[in-house]
Amino acid sequence: MTEDRNDRLEQLFAHMELEKLDENLYRSAYRNEGWVRVYGGQVLAQALLSASLTVPEDRAVHSLHAYFLRPGDLDHPIIYQVDRIRDGRSFTTRRVVAIQHGRAILNMSASFQIEEDGYSHQDDMPEVPPPEECLSRQQMMEKFRGSVSDELLDKFAKPFAIDLRHTETENLFQPEKKPARRSVWFRLETDLPAEYRLHSHLLAYASDMTLLQTCLRPHAQSMFDPKLQIASLDHAMWFHRPFRMDQWLLYVQDSPSASEARGFNRGNIYTRSGELVVSVAQEGLIRVRD
User: Fold this and answer.
1) How far apart are CA 195 and CA 49, in angstroms?
2) Of 77, 106, 261, 266, which one's alpha carbon is 20 to 30 angstroms from that of 284?
């Protein structure tokens, strides 16, 4: 079990490694992951990392805005081209294009800022069951074994480096009609060094895992339905306060609107002590095919 856990962690951290090809030009150094196309969170995290490699260490990302332009090829490396838009006294701006087969698959702008003091306020974290009282992804899948093929169930329940726990037990394969709100706890299953700098990149990786499914809840629609075409269209993040990916974080999600084959989703991410550390917004394709 320990060896399997270490393999999962190694795989995740390998996604945080990029090969420098030239000034402002990087290539993914590890195989891509995903089911039929590259997982969007991987491309997002690597694009953010490539931008960060061109920014002074005293500046941390405070926002990013990305568009997913084409599905990624699982069997081909991804090239990241960084454009150094601006280097100011307080803020640094970068634009990144992720490229496969000579075509852009993602376009991202990211802004970095020096540490500064200022006014502070936030929304309160909602009351939810603690992570110790919530089922792990594997436990929840086992609870609903028999409602879907064992092949799909085992694929979805495959051990992962990020421990993900829904605060509400739900059958993701045969969902009931519910309000467009959900919350999940997550954390990295290891203790990171105190000086580890890539928490924001790991969070960007994790932020795409459950958000788009939120807009399907009012329609009792499973993301695994073969007649549904679902994909992230864009993704935005605002980093408010420091956090650690090896400690529990609560991802509070809602979907205020869906229309014209698109679903809009929002998320607030809190530390266990109730600090709002990151806000997320995403629109995704939710097209029903004949």
Assistant:
1) 17
2) 77
**Torsion angle (degrees, nearest 10) of CA 211, 60, 91, 84:** -80
Report domain extents, the chain.
1-116, 130-290
Please state, in angstroms and rounded to a whole number, the distance separating the CA atoms of residues 245 and 189: 9
Q: Where are the beta strands (DSSP E) in the chain?
A: 18-22, 25-28, 59-68, 79-87, 91-100, 103-114, 162-166, 181-188, 228-239, 249-259, 262-271, 276-288
What are the tokens at 60? 């941390």
Other CB atoms closer than 10 Å to residue 77's CB: what's the count? 14
Tokens, residue 128: 């939810």
Q: Which of 265, 233, 235 is nearest to 252 (CA)?
A: 265
Structure tokens at 80: 């990241």
Q: Do 1-116 and 130-290 fold alike per CATH?
A: yes
Angle at alpha carbon of residue 31, lines to 30 and 36, rounded to 5°:
150
Predicted confidence band at 15 (pLDDT cuts at 50, 70, 90)? Answer: confident
Cα dihedral 141, 142, 143, 148, rounded to 10, equals: 60
The contacts of residue 212 (CB under 8 Å, 6+ apart) are: 223, 230, 232, 263, 265, 282, 284, 286
Q: Which residue has the higher pLDDT, 29 or 25?
A: 25
How buried is 181 (Cβ within 10 angstroms: 0-12 exposed, 13-18 middle, 19+ buried)?
A: middle
CATH of range 1-116; options 3.10.129.10, 3.30.110.40, 3.40.50.620, 3.40.30.10: 3.10.129.10
CATH architecture of the domain covering 130-290: Roll (3.10)
- Nearest in space to 183 (alpha carbons), one of 129, 136, 123, 103: 129
Partners of 106 in the β-ladder: 68, 98
pLDDT at 10: 82
Instruction: Determine the Cα–Cα distance for residues 29 and 33; give it in Å rounded to an integer.
Output: 12
